[in-house]
Give the backbone structure.
Amino acid sequence: MKRVFALVLLALIALIFSVNSYASCYTCELPNTPPEKPSVYITPAFPEDDDDLYCHAYSYDADNDTIVYHYQWYKNDSLFRTYTTKSNSTSISRAYTSVGDVWKCVVKAYDGEAYSEENYDSVTISAPESCEDFELSLPTKRVSLSKDDSASINFWVKNLSSEGICLTIEAKDYSPYISASPSKNSVCLSAYESKLLALTITTIDAPPASYTVKLRVKGRCLVREEEITVIVEQPCCAKVLEVIPIKSNICQGEKGIISVLVRNRSNRVVNVKLEASSNGFVARFKQNEFELDPRQELYAELEVYAEGSLGEHYVYVYARSDHDYVKKKAWFNIVECPEVPKRSFALEVPTSCIKLQKNQEKSIAFSLKNLLDSKQKINLQTVSDIISNVEKSVTLEPNQKKTLYVKVYAKEYVEPGKHYVRIYAWNSSYREKKELCIDVKPMRKSRVVLEENYKEIEQCSFGVYTLTIENQGDLEEEYEIRVNNPTKASIKLSDSEFSLKPKSGKEVFITVNVPEDMPTGDYNAEIIVENEDVWVKTIYFKVVRATRPEVPAPAKPSRLMVVSYPVSIAFYPGEQREASLVLYNPSENTYEVTVTFDLPEGFASQKRSFTLGPEESKTIVNVIEASGMLEPGKTYFGRIKIEYDGKTITKALRLHIEYPPEEISGQAPVGFALLSPEAIITGILIIAAFVLIIIMIKNISAKTMEVRPTLKRR
C-alpha cells in the first residue's frame, strides 16, 4: 500500500512540473536581463601628450533598469585607476600621459543585479606634430596687485600661415586666490592676421605671496604657453590711489574735457585732492576734492584749453591722499574741427536697456523736438543686427515735440545679450544719431515629435516607437520622460532623464512588449516629456493574435539611434564650422552607414561613409563651409541624411548667416553718410587749398592788368 501511495505521489509531482514547464513556454514575464555589452571608445582617437583622455560608454538595458558603469583605466597593461558612476564618460588628465604610453579603458555595465560582458578601447599617445602656424606675444609677464584687486594684460596672437586658423585660448590660475580669464575663449584669424586680446587677472581675498597664471593658446597642431607672475603686495606697501587718464581729442582753440579715472584701492575711506599743471596749457579740474569709499572709483573731468599747435600734447595730473601721492601724464590730441552746424532738432531715446523676448515684436518710444520757429521735415532710419523699423520721415510744426516708435524684433537665431539699434535723424543742414540698447533674453524652446505613433503588435511580441526631442533654445535643458500606461503591456524607454545642449537633438526608443494573454484590440498610452514645459504624446497600438506560439527573444531595436545631432548652426560669411553627431547601433547587425549633409547652394561639406558594428557608437564630425558671397541676416535650410541597410533617417538643419561685427558697426543709412573727423578735416583742407589757388591767380592777373580788385567777403 505504501509503495502504491509513493508511486501516485511521484506521478503527481511529475505532472505539476510538466504543466509548469509547458506554461513557461508561453509566458512573457522574463527574469532580469543583464545590460547589453557596452560600446566603448576613447577620445581623441589619436591623442597627443597634451590631450586629456575621455572614455565614453553606452549600454542598453531591456528591463529599463538604471545602469551603473564600472570603468578600469590601464596604463601600459597595469591598472591605473577605477571609477564606478552612472555617467557615460570618465577622463584621465594629460598630466599622467607620456609619449608612447598605451592607455586602455575597460567597461562593464551593472543594472543592480547583474553585470554585462566587458568591452574596451585603447589608444597610444603620440608626439605632437611640429608646426609653427601662430605666434603668441605677451609683453607683460609680471603684475603687482593688492588684495581684492584686478588688472588686464594685453597680448597678441598672430597667424603665421597663408591659411585661416582658429585658436583656443584658456587661462589657468592654480590657486583659489587668483582668477584669470581671457577676453575671448576662441578666435579665428585669416591669413597673416593678428589680433589684440586681453587677459584679466583678479585677486580674491589673496594673502601676500607670489602666484602663477598660465596663458595657453592651442592651434591645429601647436600649443603655446606663457606664464605670468602675480605679486600680491603687503597692504602697507600697496598703492592706495590709482589714476588713469583717458586720452582724448580736443578741437584747436576750444575747451575740451579729459576724463581721469581715480580709484581707491584700499579698504578704507580716503580724501582725494586733484591738481593739474602745464607750461603751455590752462588746465583745471571741475571738482578737485572729493571722498572715495573703499574700492570706489570715480571719473573726474579735467578741462583743458587747447590754445596750441595741432598734434599730441599732455598735462601733468597730481592725486593726493593722506598716505599716497600719484603723478600721471594726461595725453590729448589737438585737432582741427569742422564748424558744427546749428542744432535744428533734438533726438532723445531711452537711456536704459530695453528687454526683448525672441519672436515678440516690441514698440519703443523716442522723441523728436523741433528747435526752430519754422516747420521742418526730418528723415529717419535705423541700423541694427536685429529687425528694426521706424517711420521714414516726420514733419514737425514750429517748436513741436512728437513721440515716435521704433519697432524691434529678434528672431530665434539672434544671440542673447545686448544689441544696439542706431537711430539716425537728418535733414539738409543737420543730423543726429542715438543708440538704443536692446537686451535680448535667452529663449527656451523645445520640439518633441513622436514618429509612427500607430503599430500592430502580435501577442507575446513587441513594437518600437521613436521619440525625437530637440532643444531649439539658448539654454541647456533637462528633460524627464515618464509613461502613463493603463494597459497590460510593458512600455520601456531607452532614456528617461537626460540633458540637451542648445541647438541639439536626441532620439529615444520606446519599446512596447505585449504579453501573450493580452486581449486583442486597440490600446493607447501616454508618453509625458517634462522640463519647464510639458508635452503629452499618445502612442496607439493594436494587439493582434500571435501567428506562432513560441516566445520571442528579448526585444532589441534594429534601427540606428541618433544620440545627438545639431539643430541649428550660425556662420559668418566665408566661415567654417564643425557639425557633430553621435550614432549608436543597438542591434546585433553590422551596418554600412553613409552620412550626407544635404545643403543649399553656398554651403559645402564632405560625405562620410563608415561601418558601425553591433552595439557600437560613433561620433562623426563634419566641417561645413559657408561661402563668402552668402547674404548676412538670411536663414537657409538643409538636412542630415543617415543611410544604412536600405533605410534613411533625416534630420532638419537650419543654417543662419550672421552679420560680421565690423560690418554691422560700419553700416550707414542710405542717403546719409556719416563722415569721420579725419575725412571732414581732409575735405576742408582741400577746399581751402582750392580757394587759395583761385585768390593767387586773381592777384597775379590784377597786377598784370594794373587794376586793383575789390575783394568781397563770402
Q: What stands out?
A: The CA atoms of residues 311 and 436 lie 34 Å apart.
